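[job 4471] stage=fold_predict status=RUNNING
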Amino acid sequence: GLFVTDYFTRTPRKLSPFRSFASIELFHFHIPEDTVIAVWNLITFKEQGGTFGDQCPDRSITVYFRSGAPSVINPLHTHFPRDTAVPGSFALTLTWTLPNRTTGVFNVTSPLPGDWFLAAHLPKDEGKISVKGLYEECQYLFQPQLIVQRLVNIAVLYPGYVTEQSMAPHNRSCLYKVFVPSYTSRVLVEVLRCRGTEGCPLWLRMRAKAPPLHNSTALDCREHAPCQLALDLPFWQHWYYVLVEKHPGVPGTVSFQVTVQLTDCSRPSLARPPFLPSSASMNMPHSFGSVGGLALGDSPPLASPNGTKHPVPIPTASPAGERCWPVRPTLRNELDTFSVHFYIFFGPNVSVPPDRPAVFVINLLPVLDSGGVLNLELRLNVSSLCGENVTVFGCLNHEVPLTSGDNASVTCETETLAGFLLSVNATASLSRLRIPYPQTGSWYLSLRSLCATEHGFEPCTNVTAEVYLRAYLSPCINDCGIYGQCKLLRTNNYLYAACECKAGWNGWGCTDNAEAFSYGFQLLSTLLLCLSNVMFVPPVAIAVRSHYLLEAAVYIFTMFFSTFYHACDQPGIVVFCIMEYDVLQFCDFLGSLMSVWVTVIAMARLQPVVLYLLGAMLLSMALQMDRHGLWNLLGPSLFALGIMAVAWTARTIRRRHCYPPTWKRWAFYLCPGALIAAAAVLLYAFVETEENYFYIHSIWHLLIAGSVGFLLPPRAKPSGRLGPLPRRKGCGYQLCVNEQEELGLVDPAVASINSICTS
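[job 4471] inference complete, writing C-alpha cells
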C-alpha cells in the first residue's frame, strides 16, 4: 500500500523533581487512524546559565506513555485511596550518553489511534530550598518528537459481501478494515475459495482500532476448514482491521475471497442484511478512507480493482447468549471544569429485574474529560430484597457492554475485554469505584441481580432489587482531603487536575500517611516559627529607649506579620490565617527588608525622612516584581549599606580618624552583630531544606533579631553647649570639647568647642 509520513514536535520544557503528579511535564499528541508505526524521538539536554551544562550531574529521566488519557504514575510507591482503579502505562528511563545531551527512541507498532500522552520527570530530590538567583541552576530540558507512518487507501469490507483477492508472489499480506456499529455482538471473518500451491497457506488476523500485531487474534487457515475467525463482544463504533498474511516461503500466487458478517444483538436470530440503503443505516462515518470511498447514501460498489463484491447467503442461526438489552442513556450536567454529573432518566433509583440486566451508558467527551476522575457509587436499598440473599453485581466496561450467556457469571472480563466489578448486598450495601484519568468514549454499566445459594450464585426469581446509582466526574479524589490541594493544570490546550500533598502526606489522593507529620509535630513547628519572632522584643525595647521610634514601629510591624504569616503558611491542620495568604506574605517580606533598611540608615546616623520613604518604595517595587528573586531583595539592602559606608567615610575624612572611633564599639557591638547577621544569611541560603525548615527558619528569626539588637546605635544626645571642665592647676589653657563625639555617639559636624578657658 501507499504510506504517508507525518511529523510532530513539541517545545522543550524544563523538568522538575517528582513530588506529585502536579510536578511532572505532560505532553499531548494525536495519532491518526491507519497508523502502522509511531516513533518517538526523546531529546534531553542540560543547560546552566544559558550555556550547555557540561558540569551538571547526570540525573535519570523517566518517561511514561499511555493512549487515551494521561498516565497514572506512582514512582514513590505510595498507597492509592480505597476503591481506586489504577490503569496501566508503559515507562521508559533515559540515561545520558553525552555530557550534556542524550536521545532515546520509543517505537510503537500499530499504535491505537487518537490521543497519546507522555509524562516526564526527574527523580525526587532532598527538597533543598534554594534562593532564586544565588547561583546558576542546572536545568534539564525535555523535547519529544513524533514520527508516524500511516497507510492510505485501505480496502473496506462490507458486511455480507465477498471481496476477491489475488496475492502476488512478492506480496506477503493484504489489509482490510470493517466498521462495527452499535449493538453488534459478533464479528465473523471468513476466507473462501483459497487456492495456492500448498493448499491455503494463509494466516487470518483481526484487531480493533489498529492493524493487527503478531499477538493479535489469529487463525491458521491450513489447520482450520472452513477458515473462520469469530470475535464476540466487539467494540462498538470502531474500525476492525483484518490482515490476511501468507506463510513465509510460500511460492506462487495465492487467490482467495474474504467476507465478513456482523450479528445484530438486538435481533439475535438475524445477521445484518447484505445491503443497507445508506451508510447512515450502517452507522458508519461519512468517509471510509479507501479507494472509491462512499459518500452518504452511496451503496457498496459492485466491483473494485482488486476483486468483485457480491452478496452471500447469511445464516439465520447465531450462538446463544448474544442478545443485548436496551441501553439507557444518561443526562450530562456540567457544573464546572471536571465537575460533571450524569443523571439517569427516571432515576437515581434503579430497578434491577431478576431476568435481565439493566444497562446504562456514560459518555466522556474526547480530551475534555480525561483529565479528571470518574466516580461511580452504588447503594442497595436493602428493604427491596424482601429477605432474599440477593447480590447486585455491576460491570463497568469501555466501548461495549458486557453480556454473558452464563447468567450466574460474576466476572467482568473476557479474553478481549477488561472491566471493573462492583457488588452490593445486604451486608455491604455501598460500593464505590474511582478511575483517575479515564479513557474517553462510552462507558457501559451493566447491573445484574443474583441470589447466593449453596452452589454459588444463581438467577433470582421474583425479586427486583432497587439500587441508588450515582456517577459523576470530579477534578481530584475527595478533593485531595485536608492534607492536599487540588490543582488545575494546563499543558498547551489540555487541562488536567492533580493533588499536591503537604505535611508529609503522599499518594494520589493525599491519603498515604507513611511519612505524615503528627499533630504534635505540626504544633511544635508552628509554635517555633511563630514564637521565634518574640526575639524582636529586645530590639524594639532598645529602639524605644534610644528614641528610635520609627525603627521600633518597623520592628513591631515585622514581628506581627512574620508571626501570623508563618501561622498561615503551615502545611498541616495547625493553621491560623487572619488575612489572605498573599497579603501576609507580602507584609512579612516587606517588614523583613524594611527592618534591614532602617537599621542601616540608623547606623549611618542620617536623619532625612526621605531616605525611609525611598526605602519603602524601592522595596515594595522589588517585592512586586519578584518576591523570591535574589537581586530584587539584595539590591536595596546593598544600596542602604552603600549610603552608610559613604556617611562613615565622610566622617572619617572630616575627623581624620576612624569612625566609629572607639574599639569597644567595634569589638562588642558591630563585629558580633555583623557575624550574627552573616550566619543567619548563610543558614537561609545554603542550609535550609523542606525537612529542616521549621527549626532552621526559626533560628534565622532569632539571629536576625539578635543582630539588630547589636547593630542599632545608642541614643544620639543633643549637642547643647556643655559647662566648662574643671581647671587643672598649672595649665595656662584648657580646651573643652564634647565627650560624646569621642565615643562616636553623635555627629561630629554638630559638635562644637565649648569654650577656651584661661587660667
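[job 4471] summary: Confidence is low (pLDDT under 50) at residues 274-306, 312-322, 727-759.
[job 4471] exit 0
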